[in-house]
Amino acid sequence: MNTRTRLRIAGQSGTGLLSVGSILIRSLRDMGFYCVADREFPSLIKGGHSCFTINFSDQPLKSLSQTCDILVTIDKPSTQAYFDTLDEGGVWVHGYERPVGLKDFRDTADKRHITTVHMPTRTTAKEVGGTDLQQNVVLTGMAWKVLGLPYDILETEMKRKFAKKPQFMESNLAALKAGYERTEYQIPQTKYQIPKKKERRMLIDGNHAIALGAIHAGVRVYYAYPMSPSSSILTHMADYAKEVGMIVKQGEDEITVANLNMGSWYAGTRSLCATSGGGYDLMTETVSLAGIIETPWVGIIVQRPGPATGLPTWTAQGDLNLAIYSSHGEFARCVIAVSDPEDNFTLIQHALNLAEKFQIPVIVLSDRVTGESLLTVPEFAQNTIPIERHLVTGKNLEKLDNHDRYKITKDGVSKRWIPCSHPDKYYFANGDEHDGMGRLDEDQSAGEMYAKRFRKLETLEKDLPEPEVLGVKKEADISFVGWGSSKNVMQDIIGQQGISGKRQGVRINYLHYSYVYPLKTKSLEKFFKDNPNVHLIEGNHTGQLGQLIEQKTSLKFKGKLLKWNGRPFFVEDLENYIKEQMPKTK
Amino acid sequence: MNTRTRLRIAGQSGTGLLSVGSILIRSLRDMGFYCVADREFPSLIKGGHSCFTINFSDQPLKSLSQTCDILVTIDKPSTQAYFDTLDEGGVWVHGYERPVGLKDFRDTADKRHITTVHMPTRTTAKEVGGTDLQQNVVLTGMAWKVLGLPYDILETEMKRKFAKKPQFMESNLAALKAGYERTEYQIPQTKYQIPKKKERRMLIDGNHAIALGAIHAGVRVYYAYPMSPSSSILTHMADYAKEVGMIVKQGEDEITVANLNMGSWYAGTRSLCATSGGGYDLMTETVSLAGIIETPWVGIIVQRPGPATGLPTWTAQGDLNLAIYSSHGEFARCVIAVSDPEDNFTLIQHALNLAEKFQIPVIVLSDRVTGESLLTVPEFAQNTIPIERHLVTGKNLEKLDNHDRYKITKDGVSKRWIPCSHPDKYYFANGDEHDGMGRLDEDQSAGEMYAKRFRKLETLEKDLPEPEVLGVKKEADISFVGWGSSKNVMQDIIGQQGISGKRQGVRINYLHYSYVYPLKTKSLEKFFKDNPNVHLIEGNHTGQLGQLIEQKTSLKFKGKLLKWNGRPFFVEDLENYIKEQMPKTK
Amino acid sequence: MSDQSKKLAGCADRYLQYETDEVMTWCGGCGNYTIQNALKRALALENIGRDNVIFCFDVGCSGNGSDKMEGYTIHGLHGRVLPLAAGVKIANHKVHVIAEAGDGATFSEGAGHVIHAVRNDYPILFLHHDNQNYGLTIGQASALTPKGCKMSGCPQGNPVDALNPLEIVLSLGPSFVARVSCTDTEHMTEIFQKGLQHDGLAFIEVLQSCPTFNKDTTHEWYVENIKYIEKELPKYDPTDLWAAKRLVMEETMYLGMIYHNPEKQNFLKAVEHWDPKCPALVEDVHQVDVSGIMAKL
Amino acid sequence: MSDQSKKLAGCADRYLQYETDEVMTWCGGCGNYTIQNALKRALALENIGRDNVIFCFDVGCSGNGSDKMEGYTIHGLHGRVLPLAAGVKIANHKVHVIAEAGDGATFSEGAGHVIHAVRNDYPILFLHHDNQNYGLTIGQASALTPKGCKMSGCPQGNPVDALNPLEIVLSLGPSFVARVSCTDTEHMTEIFQKGLQHDGLAFIEVLQSCPTFNKDTTHEWYVENIKYIEKELPKYDPTDLWAAKRLVMEETMYLGMIYHNPEKQNFLKAVEHWDPKCPALVEDVHQVDVSGIMAKL
Ligand SMILES: Cc1ncc(C[n+]2csc(CCOP(=O)(O)OP(=O)(O)O)c2C)c(N)n1
Ligand SMILES: Cc1ncc(C[n+]2csc(CCOP(=O)(O)OP(=O)(O)O)c2C)c(N)n1
Ligand code: SF4
Ligand code: SF4
Ligand SMILES: [Mg+2]
Ligand SMILES: [Mg+2]
Questions:
Q1: Three-state secondary structure readout of A144-174
Q2: Cβ of D33: how many Cβ atoms within 10 Å?
Q3: pTM value surpassing 0.90
Q4: Which chains touch A (3 or more CB pairs under 8 A)?
Q5: Cβ–Cβ of D163/C272 closer than 8 Å?
Q6: Per-residue pLDDT at A402 exceeds 50
Q7: What letters, b where the CB count within 10 A reaches 16 and e where it falls short, cover D60-86?
Q8: How far is residue B358's CA from residue B364's CA, in Å, rounded to a whole number?
Q9: Which ligand lies nearest the alpha carbon of C212?
């Protein structure tokens, strides 16, 4: 039974909509609701319309609906921008002092049976001893009341939020209470059950989770040049650096960052960097260096729509081909894609292990919606993925020969040991083609070293887990194949957490790729055999995973659900697509 | 009838082997022979083994044989390195003073019926008034005599070469004559006919031809950062700049070069830059900018083996995927591949026209063997490819609307006019997503502009010529599909200009892609239908064109001839492969 | 009314041609407003119309003005505006080319480009928006942020010494270096005019307030800490490199012409066969006969 | 025998551990030979063994020495040796890190990196091989090639002014700047030792002859035009920035310690919670418990 309730707070950037949103979502989390929340905001500092959308339910949720049941608007321009995303019969909460310019909204509201909940928030705030700074706090109280949820939860959260700014505490609480108590209207209770058992869940986004996963897996230094949507990873890492004994350095450009990362990996520690598509273009020559000197290098691309500056604050999955095919020459690499906070936390640990095991560059693809949408998730399990360094250490160093470092082996992997760990077993990490010890080798036979390095791709492919099937095991009415952030909307659709709630009995399943390259095809072939109606889902224009599948297999998709306007997949996108694709009989 | 004669001059870098080679090849050209010549040299300034190989015939030749009939060795280490490339019954020409260290070469020579032609070149030079600087000139005379060719041709060439250094003329001529006259041995005349009609042919390499093609097509500014094997384009362009009124600027790094190129194209002139794979990695972000502001941008990648520094002075076709898939985001681009001097001259002109017609980046792929091997070719036909600028100019500017510049059209192409050509019809070339005039547009509808730009790929694909079939029209015993420099060896094999001369009656044909992306597949499908035994030929490890074909079609290759050790395809590579692949009955 | 305002009144239309009716998206009190105004004034006073100027923008808050200046503009990549603008000028030397970039773009992402733009002396006007932080990416430290400043990405305070931009520029053999402040539009206008008249790279350090992320060098702080060379140092000779090198090391922010080297040969003049009278490269694309060259091969 | 040679004799094995029996591939008379020798001498005299030094090379003729120095070496990308070496030092502060690059790599391809390597003061020894041209790509002009020089790629003569590398470095707040010449191995050895002892970025300008492509500043030319600060300017104080700034603008090439700033805090020391005694990052990779952090989310 679909119990998704959809709350949207709209306001111009910098008008405090985030603080309203954060108190509400924290309170919902405290009540044990599953929440998912995301911001839409323009690539400006101030002005421009933006909104903070919270969907919550007593069932797990991972993606958002496009529209909302309750719209809280802070200023008129944002009302204009988002009013039509408020569904029939929804509730419009606002606190404007002067009704001027609201005429047509009120008319639409009537036409669409929208209940308006209003009080002049600035006057109310002042009445209870606050200032016009507290008008948003009144609005927060009003919204919580409309949701019909107990005041004490909201109040506790307000106290926690302003614990460090006691000077505002009193007036904030007064304004909160006034907003709550002076609001009469409440949405009908059938909307959702209040969860009974209170399992404590974190409120965390992908960028924060990937930072924690990296710290947990022993990353000792983090390098980055600010570039949205990856910048918050830098902020988190810098905030925790002292506490976890890590060094964080904001490099002066992406090539500096890529080479700092290369030097630290070559020297033998665990290092990490992150950027977005444009920044990664600048790193590709260095990734090619990691390829030839067979040294681990891990980097994260938090994708946004390109080309060039594109849409810096929106989301996309347009850089899969970039991750797989960029960097001149041919060498083995691995491309991993994250989707929710949990696999952000775990997959970065696997990425670090794979990079050291196969001595290759590993690129982790995230995107804005994965990196910046907040989800309620249980605390991540720790110590489940042991650190694998695959280094020759201690006494074993004695048995080494200098020519072991790049020795031509069947599986392509040779021994690696930390520079200076033994005075005599030195080797040359040489960007020119080279022999077993790294000495320049321009003979015809140098082709064998080139092939040796590339053999690692096959060995890696065998080592990777197959993609996982979610939903019905076989004979689905409609099936999807996708990677990265597509998993979130697919899980909601499969878990009947769309809007319509009931999936009209449609059997759905989804094959999810976390490890995208090298592409594993065994379960893919089985998935196509087991399911007659397989479609592709990707947040880009050309269906890049689809192209890789078409190249590696002779499988053909029945259809492709592609989206490339900077918005993530909403549950409506899937529901409409499924409706179109399903034969009428269903 | 195969009349290919193979001459190799071996010597350490910097020991004058190039001047010996250049006089010989010019003399052969003057006699009307078809010649192809190439250098093999290490990535060092001095030392290390290198050789200059000339193959000539009365039939057209485009690629080299791996071994030689006549080996001229300047120093002992190079004799060591190249002696076993001298075939049975060949001729070894050398001028060492002291026989020390030659013992085992003499033994091998006897065992393999190799005739040794020797005189102490330094003493001979001194005898006729030269110095030990002239020992190579004596060697040149010796080699020409062994070829049994008339002395006057050689002498004329020597005079032309030292016209500007008269002080050496006399001693040079004396040494040349001594070398020629004191040598008795001549290879049997049956080897080749001396061509009758003397059609004048240029001796030119691909880099020089592409420079001339660019100048001819109105390129007014050339930018480059030195990187082999592209540096000679910079040298040629700089040498002609004054004469043809062009500006040449050596940028301080590849990102500077890419953005100088971008600014000059945006401002409305024709501009060009060139680099190799590693340098192109640094240009990819700027190519993405050309993608979103829909402004022409033409760049040449002269490929060499990667990854990273790789093998700077060797050849490879390993960067096709780089050209097609690098640069973040999705946008229309064209990838063209050159093979011989003639299509270097013509295809760069088409590349410039296509870039302006579709307002896209066009990447021209060459490689070391294409760029630096010398061929005898007739003077290029001029004015065969009119300059197409596709600009709104003059009175038509009046009718323009500012929003025409990026107007959403069916074929994806909008109007372009030179900035400042009209005071009121200004537009914003915006790296952020934008509307028809280039103003920032972050609305959902921005996806339409993204799709509009990408539609150009389809329009472009329809506009490109289909790949051409060389050799037998249909039912070949063995067929090949390839791109770029592979055409040269395929033309020699089809023209029966391998070593064995007779192709044992094997019917061979070859489908050649000059326009590689977007991939045209109509004639490809027909080629697979018409020929039962189609193989792929590529100078890389992963068969990148093969992957593109497997992705776009469901065609399957019977086999793949791949080479990735830095050496070009020699005729022996094809002959051996064909022998292996042909059913024993042939 | 200053004589500058009087003159401006006389050519208001030339100013208004660049005015936009789009909503501006900079924060309230941002220095970008006055800088853009001063530039429009200078263009009006120099009688430079939209058919005679191309604006090149870097990525940063100043770059968000690229579709708010009603003229031919190009908004390129972060850190790359100088080589982009140089390419424009080389292709069309007959129009003015103006480049604008922030301190992150100029002394971090594009540090290599500023060195060689000054060395090559491309004839463009370059406005360096120095707000001592990364505004658009929400408040990280730039290479010009003072050591110790607490910013996003360095909560314990910026660990690294700040660079002195003008100390670097003066070590590159520049032809024109000036400094202005967003707090004085008239003075900016006057210096921008000089920059537009200069036939080489006019490097103008623009002290720019950023109330949102830079609480130290605010509008008020600048007003208190700036001095005018013309007023305070009447005997200052801008062609004296050593005087300039000393001036830029002082705490006080002296505004005005800091250094001018009239002998420096700009990029185009250094090309032996280039001639300002010959057609701009954009007008000169034609089929070139290469038979002469081919005959010699 | 100088006392340096005597000392060296005493630790010949330490020198020989770096010696290769591979064929060296530099041209005859190339400055690279003496520079590499001096470096080996300095390492021997400072008793730094192969388990205590990592050599980082850029791409260029000096980089071709990367497999001729018998120790742990990394031969990275053109222009990128400084951030590469910085990454190595940050990961393992317990070993010496040496970076070497040419003038093309340092002041063209990697110009942005040298600015910020000096500003961040990464504790590495940096040898700038200044042969005033691009040797390995066969003789193009670099940013330090004098204006007017005829090189490949500029047949009418290099059109652009050369940069003064030390004038630039002194504008970046460096902690250690010295100049040596390939013509004086002993002096190089002495200065390289000082660089190895310095706890910050030791920028050493190495005047390097390149007989193949640089016919102007030949071995002989250097011998005639160099002077020693210690001998000629006994009262010279290397901590006086202005004195250093003036010195590097002189025609004569003064060798020795040009500038030294003992107060500059190097990169690692500026990290508030970093402590030289704590394990190097390469020894510190362990599973870190983040439950404390998770509890607060
Ligand atoms: C290659 C690349 N890296 C990073 C970014 C993200 N980015 C956008 S603006 C900016 C810096 C802005 O600082 P500044 O140049 O000083 O301009 P301001 O916003 O302060 O005016 C950055 C790092 C980008 N757009 N492209
Ligand atoms: C990205 C990239 N661009 C260009 C090159 C080609 N390249 C190799 S060495 C070199 C410059 C050499 O000059 P310098 O740094 O002064 O070293 P030198 O050879 O003079 O010692 C260049 C441009 C390259 N290897 N990589
Ligand atoms: S962040 Fe700073 S620079 Fe950017 S618009 Fe706001 S005030 Fe201006
Ligand atoms: S080219 Fe110059 S720098 Fe390079 S090895 Fe030869 S002499 Fe030395
Ligand atoms: Mg800034
Ligand atoms: Mg050099």
A1: HHHCCCCHHHHHHHHHHHCCCCHHHHHHHHH
A2: 16
A3: yes
A4: B, C, D
A5: no
A6: yes
A7: bbbbbbbbbbbbbbbbbbbbbbbbbbb
A8: 16
A9: 3
